[in-house]
Amino acid sequence: MATFTRPDTLKDQITHYCPGCGHGIAHRIVAEVIDELGIREKTIGTAPVGCAVLMYDYFNVDMIECAHGRAPAVATGIKRVQPDKIVFTYQGDGDLAAIGTAETIHAANRGENITVIFINNAIYGMTGGQMAPTTICGQPTTTTPDGRGAHGEGGPIRVCELLSNLDGTCYLERTAVSTPKDVLATRRAIKKAFENQIAGKGFSMVEVLSMCPTDWKLSTQKSLEFVNNDLKKVFPLGVYKDR
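^ thats the sequence. predicted structure below, dont judge the formating
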């Protein structure tokens, strides 16, 4: 009896992600939800600049590569021109919360009817482990080897909390992929975010706390512990808005 089948929305392709990275888990969840909702033939995804820059090689849906941070703007254009399509962005913290801060905030504020999947691993993964907007205080990176300082570099940006103050946002939830329970919660949240778009409710975002063993310079087990014991304290899981 088969215990594992690949979702139709995932291509039969080996990914480039590091061992222990959470992107593979997130990819599978998104693919499963798209299959379950029966929307694969009408879904358009936007690939970011970051570790997921090659995601068009992995998803069996139409994909568009976006300039760094501009995925919400691109998704807005696609959705407005083709409102019958299901449009989603998949972005890391450097892409969404740094160079793409303006695009993210204004798309949310306008209530654009898109789905945003935000992978927060608290570091710049693709470019070598520099401090990201979501790096927590005391966390070492290549640009803050002694740890991020609250006064020198400022504290981490909490995106769900920030966007929850905007009238245009429909649904915001923060989840994780560091435990089986978290994975199931992430799946439920991502499904709801897509269902909101199908129903025309407006801007939905799911923030997913994820592991980055390579740039954290931790083992896979220690990376799971870092998410569960450290990141979750700074970025509490839960629903931040559900209109």
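Residues 43 and 101 are 24 Å apart (CA to CA).
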